[in-house]
Design goal:
With about 300 residues, the protein is of the alpha/beta class. It has eight helices and 15 strands. The protein is globular.
């Protein structure tokens, strides 16, 4: 199986797309692993499995429309396997097996069928003391951005990637600029929590980026992003739009973006900039705290 991921926007050829079947019972508020899911549990509006299946399959239809090879995880009954992004990630020709939080470890079993088709020399086993989930890793050619949690937040359920991951990725790719970006974390308030880096920023085609800059803790990091992309190329979103998932869209190629049908302001902005926007209704899936990028694990972009 060919692996090649240099950025978030090159033409997509193959991807692992999550499945929403048999995702299990509604958790108690105490057992929720993110504040957004907890919010919908407490408000008696936990995601509908039937509707989640429909939404993910609608996304699948769009990918197939563009002749993308779509690989699905092996379905494991009673396990939420929608968000394949976090169980692994590809940079260049290397597949990194993520060290997720313990509650998500079983999800990796669902992609074993895919890993068997990859050369063992191309699979990187992340050391046990390094925590990293794929949603915190954004690749943009010479840059690799990694969303991290600070030391004070390490005991929070939403702290998914530690600072050690930055040095580890630097060792693997010494010629890349690997930048750690410290994120705000909150186990209880989804408006004050950045679960993963792709929940606050997302590079898209033509050198532009969608960003909720206040999801990043350090002013120096915010300025660095502005310097890299240019202020004129930063599509800023509000706190409420971050909560809805505006940055968690997905590029099929540099000109085509899959976005939620309800993101009217963003979709109009993208269209005005010349992007083709494929709209998919993804509101039930979004209740788990992720959308299109979270649902995908790209393997090969040309």
């Amino acid at each position: 199986m060919k692996l090649d991921i240099k950025n978030e926007t090159n033409q997509l050829f193959s991807v692992i797309l999550g499945v929403a079947n048999d995702f299990g019972f509604q958790p108690t508020p105490e057992n929720c692993i993110d504040p957004k899911t907890k919010h919908f549990v407490l408000n008696n509006s936990f995601p509908s499995e039937r509707d989640c299946i429909k939404e993910v399959e609608s996304f699948n239809d769009v990918l197939l429309k563009y002749e993308v090879e779509v690989i699905r995880p092996k379905n494991i009954e009673g396990l939420n396997q929608i968000f394949t992004r976090d169980v692994g990630f590809v940079i260049k020709n290397k597949f990194f097996k993520s060290n997720t939080i313990s509650e998500r470890k079983q999800e990796k079993d669902g992609i074993n069928n895919c890993l068997k088709k990859i050369n063992k020399s191309d699979i990187v086993e992340v050391p046990e003391d390094i925590r990293v989930e794929g949603g915190d890793v954004l690749v943009d050619n010479d840059f690799i951005f990694i969303g991290t949690s600070n030391v004070k937040d390490t005991k929070l359920k939403v702290s998914r990637t530690n600072e050690k991951s930055v040095d580890f990725i630097k060792e693997v790719f010494p010629n890349k600029s690997v930048l750690g970006l410290e994120l705000y974390k909150n186990d209880n308030n989804p408006f004050d929590n950045i679960l993963h880096l792709d929940c606050t920023m997302q590079p898209i085609g033509n050198g532009k980026i969608i960003i909720f800059k206040n999801g990043i803790r350090k002013d120096s990091d915010k300025e660095l992003i502005k310097e890299i992309y240019g202020a004129e190329n930063c599509i800023e979103i509000s706190r409420e739009e971050m909560y809805e998932g505006y940055s968690n869209i997905f590029s099929i190629n540099s000109n085509t973006i899959v976005s939620d049908k309800t993101f009217v302001r963003l979709n109009n902005k993208l269209s005005d900039l010349g992007f083709k926007v494929e709209e998919v209704y993804y509101r039930e899936v979004s209740k788990f705290g992720g959308l299109f990028r979270c649902s995908t694990l790209p393997l090969y972009r040309k």
